[in-house]
Amino acid sequence: MRKLAHISDLHFGRIDEAVVEALLADLHSLGPDLIVVSGDLTQRGHRHQFRAARAFLDRFEAPYLVVPGNHDIPGVNMLARFAAPFARYQRYIEQDMRPLHMDAEIAVLGLNTARPVGPHWNWSHGRINSAQIAHARSVFEPLGADVFKVVVTHHPFLPPPDAPETKLVGRASLALRTFEGCGVDLLLAGHLHRGYHGDVRTHHAAIKRSILVAQASTATSTRLRNEPNAYNVIEVDGERVGFGVRVWDGKLFRYRASGRFVRREGHWVAD
């Protein structure tokens, strides 16, 4: 069995210090096999915010995998934004823009969907490119069905159940067809500051094989969107997957069950 802690949208520069300390204590108590951080470690991409995020990561007692979010690209210094958008992220957080964690039971691949500019007025929207999709195929295709395969991005592939018009990561359909073909089981993301889980088939009719999704709320930021600070706990045990949420109640993070799935005939179904 493998236990993943999925945290997102930390936003150092706009954090609640009490929540940060409680989160670190909760993660220590949980004892995950891997902590996944799905982007937006900083609020504006300033150096002091990256230094604070780095200090936070250094206190983890478990292995971790991290990808950047759109807020990790400088938002004020336009020269830095366009000339070297991820220089600070790579200096302070992680050099590898497609990090991979792999063992006998799970393979977790991070892909950077943040872009300094896009073909739309809102540059916060993300995109996945053909090279990243091809890389995911090269990682996952050689692996057997007994390895649970996870892709981590900042931007979502599945909208909230009550907001189907939500903007998704660019080229989502193309990526999902590849993920379907190479056996990806789970997609982890953030960006929306809303927590939910589901199956991509509920929104992407062309996808016939189930791919589970877990979206994380903001773990530590004061930029709440009608949800408390929270993070996901995912337990992978062979043919079964359990989703839970650790929710901040003002004093502690407390567990709330979310859902369970079992693999039957190659598909994930509610258990």
Quick synopsis:
With 271 residues, this protein is of the alpha/beta class.
Characteristic key phrases:
Purple Acid Phosphatase, chain A, domain 2; about 270 residues; alpha/beta; 6 helices; about 25% strand; 7-stranded mixed beta sheet
Shape: globular
- In total, the number of strands is 13
Write down the CATH topology.
Purple Acid Phosphatase, chain A, domain 2
- Could you give me the name of the CATH homologous superfamily? Metallo-dependent phosphatases
Largest sheet: 7 strands, mixed
Structural class: alpha/beta
Distance linking N and C termini: 17 Å
* Largest sheet: spatial strand order: 3-2-1-10-11-12-13
Helix content: 10-25%
Counted up, domains total: 1
Percent strand equals: 25-35%
User: What's the helix-strand series?
Assistant: EHEHEHHEEHEHEEEEEEE
| CATH A-level architecture | 4-Layer Sandwich
Rg, Å, rounded = 17 Å
Q: How many helix segments?
A: 6
Global mean pLDDT: 94
Uncertain ranges: none
CATH class bucket: Alpha Beta
